[in-house]
Amino acid sequence: MPVRAVGWARSFPVSLGVREARRWCLAHLETLPWTGGAPDTVHSVLLTVSELVTNAHVHAHSSARLVLTWDGCCLHVSVADDDPELPAPRPASTRASSGRGLAIVDAVADGWDAHAFHGGKTITACFHPPDEPSPLAREARGS
Hints:
By secondary structure, the protein is α+β, with helices and mostly antiparallel strands. It has helices at 17-29, 39-58, 101-108, 135-141; strands spanning 6-12, 64-70, 75-81, 111-117, 120-127. Keywords: Kinase, Serine/threonine-protein kinase, Transferase.
């Protein structure tokens, strides 16, 4: 069976801000048939968009190129920026006011990864609809 997917892409310069990225993302999430019954997943996607777009603006000092792709199994949320250094989750000090973004993404997404490319990197998080167990959960059960 051929793979069918739908996707959207937009660049968010620092001047547009994170709020506009969340608003744009929500408008596209509302077109997917499963998101109306999955408010927690929608919230997790929007939280991830906030964290990844913020990281692109603050740490990479670049526009955030946001791509949403629904492949029928996973909603892929990808953000590319101009910094080729791959992120590494690190424990944040209790006194730090930042440094928790990737830990948050790790906690709310079904999975995530980062890939460097010439002149930048892309971080992609995957979200499964609530009625679809993640492939990681199926592997853990041994199915």
